[in-house]
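Appendix B. Chain record.
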Amino acid sequence: SVLNAANEEAVSQFLVRGLPFTGIPETIAAVMDDHPTSAVGSLDDVLAADVWARARARERMQSRAAIGASA
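Structure tokens predicted for this chain:
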């Protein structure tokens, strides 16, 4: 769920030219690294992980864009 959500967010930004191609795996890896490992007990756990990962991917890409804009 986390990997898929991060991938969808990164690819979406790539398609509108908001992220370079190499930023896709970088974003996914960062989100995966940031996510705490836990057992999945219910569908609600999966959906919560999806929401969290999408938000974290957007945060990472915004941070990356801000750093790029200031360079």
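Further analysis of this model is presented in Appendix C.
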